[in-house]
Amino acid sequence: MMDCTQFRRALLADPRDASAELAAHRATCHDCSQFAEQLMRFEARLERALRVDAPDASIRHVRRVFEHRGWLAIAASVLVAIVVAGSLWLAVPGRTLAADVVTHMAGEPEAWQTTDVPVPGSDLGAVLSNSHLRLKPDVGVVSYAQSCLFRGHHVPHLVVQTAAGPVTVMVLVHEPVHMTTQFDENGYRGVIVPAPGHGSLAVLTRGEATDPKTVDEIAARVQNAIIWTDGAN
Amino acid sequence: MRPDLLRFAFWLSRDRALAEDVVQESMLRAWKAQDSLLDEAAAKPWFLTIIRREYARTFERKRFPTVDVDELVAAEDPELSAAQDQDLAELRAALFKLPLEYREPLVLQVLMGYSTAEIARELDLSNAAALTRLFRARKQLRALCGEDTRLDPEE
Prior knowledge:
The complex is a heterodimer. Chain A is α+β, with helices and mostly antiparallel strands. Chain A has helices at residues 4-13, 20-28, 30-50, 55-68, 71-88, 97-106, 121-130, 212-225, and strands at residues 133-135, 141-150, 153-162, 165-172, 181-185, 188-194, 200-206, 226-228. Chain A has a 6-stranded antiparallel β-sheet with strand order 2-3-4-7-6-5, sandwiched between helices. A two-stranded antiparallel sheet of chain A has the order 1-8. Chain B has helices at 3-13, 16-32, 43-61, 69-83, 87-97, 100-110, 116-123, 127-144. In chain B, helix 1 (3-13) packs across helix 2 and helix 6 (100-110) crosses helix 8 (127-144). The radius of gyration of chain B is 17 Å and the shape is globular. Chain B starts with a helix and ends in an 11-residue tail after the last helix.
């Protein structure tokens, strides 16, 4: 049986380690569960810090090379860069799912209004039916429902009014994940949870009003309120 | 050009211009050595290995002055201001201070998505040694950032 020191050592070495032994210890130890939550928030910041702005750098570099070399050398360099980068495009991991979700949120500020006015049922039904799901009425007031283009697919983008304020839900049927990931960046706090057989759910709140535990509870409530209508479990 | 390749080179070298040079030269070397890539699925570790070797060669060729962390952070400031997130400045300052032997496996894991086994293979370490470096990297980084480390285990 793993003890607290072993758990924390393992998690500091690899916070995304999803082994059953770690999960079992976390489920039975309050302090280690808190430690894991704190570490995942730090990890989200770390990932963001590592993603320095790179595209501008390459433009500057091409400009600098242009100043020091002739056209022929530049053409050769650019050709090589395009061919090699193109061949590697699929092999190198891209932006994280959480980062893309946060970026998408920033583009739709109007969705965050606090209101008790629900979106028309026909609008909500149309958005949900495209992704083969329904929502139980006890999820709360759904005040915003749009079908948004996200990573090449149209996905439901909903806002549910809760006691903790408006909560955004994105149903990402094309984005399967293996484990729950919490994130806290750019003023958005949220969680991405696996939806077995149906990709994943991203649940976000805005500002400091909600703590990670509340976000988890809201995510669980939303997940329980979803009824999939495509026959898959 | 794929941004993550430049980011990896940047965190190796802590210098944008040098990172750009390293990636550029690595692409030329990759192009010349493309016949040695037998399995397309292995393109990522193959290319990152070329970048690491090119960085090591560049480091051998040139003598770099001592790095001033404050200057490095200041150089990133315009972008951080644009992102309105000064918290990241502290974290980047801490990353700049982390020794390469800890910074490199951390970048491979967090930025490039490498598993422990892949990190160990790339850095020519045992799995246990790779895990120890990752553990120490985060432990040092959290302390440098002023995180609450009361629950962190001792070495």
